[in-house]
Amino acid sequence: MKRMMLLAAVAGAVVVAGLNGCAKKSTERNGGGACRLALTGTAIGLYGNGSMASMSKTGTEALPENLEVGVHVVDLTNGETPSTAAIANRKHVSDGSGALVGADPDNPVILTTGYTYDVYAYAPHVAGVAPAASSSIPVTHGADVLWAKSSGEKPNAATHTVALTFERKAAQIAFRIVADEASQPDISGATLKVTGFCRDGILDLAAGKVIPGSVDNSVELTETESPVCFLPAEGPMELKVTVTVPSGPNAGTYTGVKREVFAPGKSTVVTVTVIDRNSALGLEAGVVPWENETGSVDVNN
Fold it and tell me: Model-level pTM?
C-alpha cells in the first residue's frame, strides 16, 4: 500500500457567535469580567461532496455554505467536562465565506475573563444533544463528519477569539469501472453495487473519535465516479463489490471483496477493471486528497 501525506486545505474565517454587548452591571462574574466569544474556523481538506476531479484539488476552501456546527464550551476553572458543560451544543451556521454565525442571537456565548476553557465543535450539528450525551453524538453514513478542539483558552479582553481547526472523522470512497486495455471487453451498461458499510455510529466529542455501528448491508453504494463519505471501522473492513455487465460477450456478474483498513481523512478511489467473461475483475485502489493510497484486489464471476 502506497501512502502520501495528507493534503490539508485550510480556510480561515471569523466566526462571531451572535454576541451582544453586556450591561455594565453584569460585567463582574465571580471575580472576572464578561467576555464575548469569537471563533475563527479552519478546515482540513473539504472536498466531501464533489466530483472525482474535485477530490484531487489542493489549496484552501471555506466551510460549505449552510453547514451547521455544534459548539461546546467547557469551563475548566469550575471543573466542567464536555458531559457537564453549561454552554453545550450551541448551533452555528456557515455563511459560505467560512464565517460561522450563532443561530440564536438572543442567546450569545459569554465567557469570564480569568477563567480557562476548552472549546469543542463538530459538524453536522445534531439538535437536542444534551451535555451528558456528548460522548455519543449520532453520526450517519454519507455525512462529512468534522471535529475540532481548542484547549486552554484564557479570555482577558472584552472579546476573546478562539481558532478552531476542523479534522475529518469520516473516510471517503469512490469507484470507477473501466475495460481492460488489452482484451478490450464490451462493458456497455455495466452497473455497480458495493455493500459492507455501517449505517450509523456515534461521535465521542471529548475524544474526537467516531465509533461506527454494525455493518448494514442494506446500505448500498451504486454510483460510479462520485465520492461518498462513510464511517470507517478501527480494523479491516470488507466491502463486497458486484459489477454486472447486462449483455454482450462479456455479460455476467462479477463479485469480489475489497479488504482494507480505511482511516479518517482518507479518500480512496477504486478502479474496477473488467478483463473478459471468465477472468478476474481487478480492483485497484488509489487515494486522493484527503490522502493518497494504492492497493489492489481481484474478483471473479
Answer: 0.79
